């Protein structure tokens, strides 16, 4: 005989992401995000490139280099070693909606699904830059896209030594999951910067400019920053000194996690409910750091339980395991480019007693998600403990 949830506990239990945007579970159900669900963040109209123009797409490497070059995509594909990496892209505005609910920031309300994972194929950026031979004093790689926006082309920069460090995986990509890039994701060529906010991964790439200073592109200055918390929208609009301070520019992602099961407003199935409920979600670290623990609290952070962590990315880095006969797995020491999934089986009876479920992650440098939100005017890098409320009715 089927028992309803009410039969079993005498009341209904709704699991709701209170003050929390929904994370559609299907966006995080698989390690690689299907193309139709991959998040899109464009600042303006998407440049249109015809199929017959793809191979002739030109981009230049200029600035502080001995050997400035203009390369076509055809040359990039035929003259350089090709690599494929699984990479999770995360918008700096992931989870911004929570900030907007506390105080409206200047950004729109991303839920906790402003991130996606794909296999990116292309060329390691350092291979291209090395051939251009950077000159003394070269410190930054400025990137510029082809999208014409109200304040010029989209552009930003990363440090040259990051681009030259192959362990960071910075690449020029033309394929996603084995297919040529789709228009929204930078067709035909984009930069991909693993472990850093998505805003550094310039799409429709036209230029790499090697410089001795960070990019002066409008979108580098007025976007992708965490300004001090007291700076209000008005104050920031009237005072450019906040924006020109490179200390507030964001590069590495901060450690973060979210609960995807239960989803927003999910009502536990009333029929045949098992004794345990498996709560699940994702987590990621920044700068190539791996998430080393994910913890769950059912008592508002007084006590925590350790969840299981699954790193599907490891399936893609079996080389070391093969070399060492599977005995010596050193792969965890390498940079980590992707999200991981965590899960924890909880007794339904315990859930029944709780008001909410909290999750927090820690990375291998012991950076841990804070309890409290750090509000800032662009609403970026939001990473306090993620909370799902358990609403009890009846
Ligand atoms: N590159 C260009 N040329 N123009 C853009 O608007 N948006 C950036 C980045 N690269 C952007 C860009 C931002 S803010 C993010 S989060 C990522 O692209 C999103 O990449 P996706 O749309 O492929 O997910």
Please state how the strands of the largest beta sheet are arranged side by side.
13-1-20-19-15-16
CATH overall fold name of the largest domain: Sulfite Oxidase, Chain A, domain 2
Strand coverage percent: 25-35%
User: Residue share in helices?
Assistant: 10-25%
Structural class of the helices, strands and pairings?
Answer: alpha+beta
Reported for the largest beta sheet, the result is: 6 strands, antiparallel
> What's the rounded overall pLDDT mean?
87
| Ions and ligands | ligand MTE
CATH class designation of the largest domain: Alpha Beta
**Shape summary:** globular
* Rg on CA atoms, Å: 23 Å
**Pattern of helices and strands:** HEEEHEHEHEEHEEEEHHEEEEEEHEHEE
Organism: Glutinoglossum americanum
Protein name: Nitrate reductase [NADPH]
Function: Nitrate reductase is a key enzyme involved in the first step of nitrate assimilation in plants, fungi and bacteria.
Family: Belongs to the nitrate reductase family.
Describe the structure.
There is one protein chain. Helices cover 13% and strands 31% of the residues. With 394 residues, the chain is an alpha+beta fold. The chain folds into 2 domains: 5-30 and 254-393, Immunoglobulin-like (Sandwich), CATH 2.60.40; 51-248, Alpha-Beta Complex (Sulfite Oxidase, Chain A, domain 2). It has a 6-stranded antiparallel beta sheet with strand order 13-1-20-19-15-16. Strands 3-2-11-6-7 form a 5-stranded mixed beta sheet. Strands 4, 5, 8, 9 and 10 form a 5-stranded antiparallel beta sheet that branches. The protein binds ligand MTE. Ligand MTE binds at residues 38-43, 89, 91, 145, 147, 154, 184-185, 198-199, 201-204.
């Amino acid at each position: 005989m089927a028992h309803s949830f009410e039969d079993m506990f005498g009341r209904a239990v709704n699991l709701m992401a209170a003050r929390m945007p929904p994370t559609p579970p299907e966006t995080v159900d698989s390690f690689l995000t299907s193309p139709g669900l991959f998040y899109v963040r464009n600042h303006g109209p998407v440049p249109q490139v015809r199929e017959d123009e793809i191979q002739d797409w030109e981009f230049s490497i200029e600035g502080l280099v001995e050997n400035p070059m203009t390369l076509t995509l055809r040359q990039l594909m035929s003259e350089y070693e090709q690599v494929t990496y699984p990479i999770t892209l995360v918008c700096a505005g992931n989870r911004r909606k929570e900030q907007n609910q506390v105080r409206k920031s200047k950004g729109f309300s991303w839920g906790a699904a402003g991130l996606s994972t794909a296999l990116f194929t292309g060329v390691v950026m350092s291979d291209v830059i090395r051939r251009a031979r950077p000159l003394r004093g070269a410190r930054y790689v400025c990137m510029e896209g082809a999208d014409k926006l109200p304040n010029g082309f989209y552009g930003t920069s990363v440090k040259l030594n990051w681009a030259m460090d192959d362990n960071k995986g910075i690449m020029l990509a033309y394929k996603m999951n084995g297919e040529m890039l789709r228009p929204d994701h930078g067709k035909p060529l984009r930069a991909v910067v693993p472990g850093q906010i998505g805003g550094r991964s310039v799409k429709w790439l036209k230029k790499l400019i090697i410089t001795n200073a960070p990019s002066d592109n409008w979108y580098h200055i007025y976007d992708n920053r965490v300004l001090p918390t007291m700076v209000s929208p008005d104050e920031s609009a009237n005072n450019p000194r906040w924006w020109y301070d490179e200390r507030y520019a964001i590069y590495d992602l901060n450690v973060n996690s979210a609960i995807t099961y239960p989803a927003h407003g999910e009502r536990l199935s009333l029929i045949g409910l098992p004794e345990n409920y498996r709560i699940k979600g994702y987590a990621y670290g920044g700068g190539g750091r791996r998430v080393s623990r994910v913890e769950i609290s059912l008592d508002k952070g007084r006590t925590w339980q350790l969840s299981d962590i699954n790193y599907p990315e490891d399936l893609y880095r079996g080389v070391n395991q093969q070399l060492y006969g599977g005995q010596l797995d050193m792969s965890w020491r390498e940079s980590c480019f992707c999200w991981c999934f965590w899960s924890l089986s909880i007794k339904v009876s315990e859930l029944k007693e709780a008001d909410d479920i909290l999750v927090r992650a820690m990375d291998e440098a012991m950076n841990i998600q804070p309890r409290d939100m750090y509000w800032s005017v662009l609403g970026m890098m939001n990473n306090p403990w993620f909370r799902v409320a358990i609403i009890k009715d009846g």
